[in-house]
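ok so for the tutorial part 2 we go from a plain amino acid sequence to predicted C-alpha cells. step 1 is just haveing the sequence, like this:
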Amino acid sequence: MLRLRVCAAVFLLLTLLPTPARAATATCEDLNVPVTVALLPQTMHGRLCAPPEARTVVILIPGGTYNASYWDIGYTPETRSFRLAMNNAGIATLALDRLGTGASSKPLSTLLNASVQATAAHQVIQSVRSRFPEVIIGGHSIGAAMAMIEAGRYHDVDGVLVTGMTHRMNLITVIPVLANMIPAPLDPAVPGRDAGYLTTSPGTRYTAFHTPGPLDDAAIAYDESTKDVFATTEAVDSLTLTTVVTPASQQITVPVLLVLGNDPHFCGTLGSDCSSPEALRASEAPFFAGPLQTYILNGYGHAINYAPNAPTYFGVVSDWLKNLG
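step 2 — the prediction. this is what the C-alpha cells look like for a chain of 325 residues:
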C-alpha cells in the first residue's frame, strides 16, 4: 500500500511540473519584391520565415557563389541552418537571393555591383518594414559588404550583422581563390548567366571557403550542389574597401555584430588581428561609428555557417538580437 501511495505521489508531482515550451513552428513564404536597377525593373527573391509574433526580422545577403540557401543549409540543418536557429529563438529571417542568383532576376552582369545590390536590398527592407518593429540587415563575405553599404547609406535598420568579412583583406589567399573562378557559361550547374558572372571550378570549394575546418565530404557535396555565381563587378567594389565599403561603414551608427572564423582571407599578417575577440574589435572599431561587438568561431574558415560548431555562433547572434531592443 505504501508503495502505491509513493507511486501516486510521484505521478501527481510529475503532472504538476511545467513542461518545457516548444519552439513555435515558423511560417515561411516566398517573396518576389520589385526593385529597380539602372532604371530597369527587376525582381529580388527572398524566403521569409517568421515564428508567431516575431518582432525582429534579419534581412540576409549571401556571399559570392552563394544564394539564399547559405542561410538555410539543408545538410544537418539542426546544426548548420542559421534560419532554423533564429526561428527557434523567435526571430524572423528573410534570406535573399542577390540579383543574378537563385530565383531573383538575372540581369546583364555589367549592371551589377555591390552598391546596386545594396540599393536593391534597401528596396526590400522598405517593402517589409511595416511588418516588423525591428529590422536588422546581415550578410556574409561580399554580402556583408553590401549590408554595410546599405546600412551606412540609408540608415533604415536597427542593427547590422557582419560575417566572414573585415576591413582588412589577405590578398595572398584571396587572389588565388579569384583566379580559380570560371565564367558561368562554362559550368552547366549555373545556367542562364553571361560570361561576366563567375563561379567556382569543380572541386575547389573546400580550399576556397572551408579550410582550415574539418573536411566533411557530405557538407562539401551539398555546398557544391547549391553553388551559384557572382558578377565580376560585384567583387570589384565589394573588395575595394577604402573607397566603397569603409566610407559607408563609418556612417553606421546602430549596433554592429561582427563574427569571423579562423578565416585565412581576412585574418593574419595582411588581414585583421583575429587572435581574440578583443583584438578583432580593436582592429575593426575605427571603421564603425556605432557600438561594435565581435566574436570568433574557432576551428573553421570562411563559410562559418557550415562549421560543426556553428550553433555556438548562432547563439551569440540570437542573444545579441534579443538585447538590442
